[in-house]
Write a structure and sequence with these properties.
By secondary structure, the protein is of the alpha/beta class. The protein is built from seven helices and nine strands. The chain is elongated, with a radius of gyration of 31 Å. The protein starts with a helix and ends in a 29-residue tail after the last strand.
């Protein structure tokens, strides 16, 4: 009888030990309160590192000793071109070791496109974080590696000179791609805000540069020409330029503007978005420009309506 009780007792103890061991294994695999906090902290750290990577890795990967370039792209309704622009510029500038970031300044308002004002806004948004900037058309892609996006120490550096640009070849042309130091652009009071619609804002800016005594330089040792220095991806059929002139726009915009610029730009920042295109970080600034219709009523022009010509058949003499 004693041996039977002892046997049952040992079985009971064994069952309890096994059950306790199983419970320990089960609860040991579940995260405790401290483990949960640790996971949350690690996740937040990973998210923060991921965000910082996408915002600034093009600057960090080349180190802090290099001059930092902000690429300012005045923009509206050109997303297909932007999809080509961002990865192309990343590959092109990485070969030069230039730390850079792309800022797309998107005109969000209803007024006619104002390239110069968008460049002014972009400059004001980035000037404290970068050493120099490029005003860069989204449809002009550099092909020749001797087009160096280097720091323009002594004055504006015009990458797309008239001897290389696919379309414009006059001596005073400074459009397309122009690099400037931040202090030089501020010295010029930026660009004129009067140029709603397409054209002439670069010509007015050229006069500002000359009057300030700054010298425009262009890349050297470029052996290619107008056909193979750049790729121009603009579709003239589907993206017609707004060349309409209304009110006294033609007269006013052919004069040197001594009133408007960085000091008078009126705008609001609608939103700021961070995105990546083929792994390239891009900041989109959605901007609402303001128009003083007393001074520049041509920020809104009535669209041209093509009236079909009516041919009147002449009666044959009888």
């Amino acid at each position: 009888m004693v041996s039977y009780v002892r046997s049952m007792y040992l079985r009971y103890v064994g069952i309890c030990v096994c059950a306790s061991f199983c419970l320990l294994l089960l609860f040991g695999s579940l995260p405790g309160a401290t483990d949960t906090c640790k996971c949350d902290d690690e996740q937040r750290d990973r998210d923060l590192q991921h965000e910082q990577f996408h915002k600034s890795f093009r600057v960090l990967e080349h180190g802090s000793d290099r001059k930092r370039l902000a690429i300012i792209v005045p923009f509206r309704d050109r997303f297909d071109e932007l999809l080509q622009f961002a990865p192309h510029m990343a590959a092109f500038l990485s070969k030069q070791g230039v730390p850079f970031h792309i800022f797309v300044v998107n005109q969000n308002d209803r007024y006619r496109f104002n390239r110069a004002s968008l460049i002014n806004v972009g400059f004001l948004q980035v000037r404290d974080g970068y050493d120099y900037f490029a005003m860069h058309d989204v449809d002009l892609l550099p092909l020749n590696d001797n087009l160096r996006y280097e720091y323009p120490e002594h004055g504006p550096l015009h990458i797309s000179g008239p001897e290389y640009h696919p379309k414009y070849h006059y001596a005073a042309f400074i459009g397309g791609i122009l690099l400037l130091r931040m202090d030089h652009f501020a010295q010029l009071n930026g660009m004129s805000n009067r140029y709603w619609g397409w054209g002439l804002e670069d010509d007015e800016f050229y006069v500002r540069i000359k009057e300030a005594g700054l010298e425009v330089t262009r890349p050297k040792n470029v052996s290619t020409g107008t056909a193979d220095t750049f790729r121009h991806v603009h579709d003239r059929v589907h993206r017609r330029r707004d060349t309409t002139k209304c009110f006294n726009q033609r007269e006013v915009t052919r004069k040197r503007d001594r009133e408007t610029g960085l000091s008078t730009i009126a705008y609001s920042l609608h939103s700021r978005r961070e995105l990546t295109i083929d792994g390239v970080p891009v900041t989109v600034l959605n901007v609402d420009l303001q128009c003083d219709k007393q001074r520049t009523p041509w920020c809104e022009c009535e669209p041209k309506v093509d009236t079909p010509s009516v041919k009147v058949a002449k009666k044959k003499a009888t």
